[in-house]
What we know:
Elements: H1 10-22, H2 27-39, H3 48-54, H4 59-72, H5 74-78, H6 94-105, H7 117-126, H8 135-143
Amino acid sequence: MKRYIVRLTDEERAFLGGLISKGKAAAYKIRHAHILLKSDADGLVWTDEEIATAFSVNVNTVHNVRQRFVEEGLEAALGRKKLAGPTVPPKLDGEKQARLIALSLSEPPNGYNRWTLHLLAGKLVELRIVESISHETVRQGLKKTV
Length: 146
């Protein structure tokens, strides 16, 4: 594992100390501030394991905070890691949403006066537009068009 050396300036040390003493920030920010202060190469350097134990975090969290500080700066280290994008691709992209709208405007099946969200979800699967979909996703897809 690559070791990232944290060297805080006097201003950064004072800022982090103030953040901790006020206690008005989010808990994760205060925890990250503690991690940075204990990781400072110009102070009493604790090992990653000691820091993790002291602040009830995983050793990987300590490593990640150090890495973000060295590579991206103080604000990035205090904040949470930004996700690159959604972890799951949307079920309804533009084409599938257009087919949903067209289906909702068509005649409902025999025996029904109108389309329900459950009927629309079932029909989307039946027509193999999507592999599976919930009625809530159908509702959100239709809501975007209103």
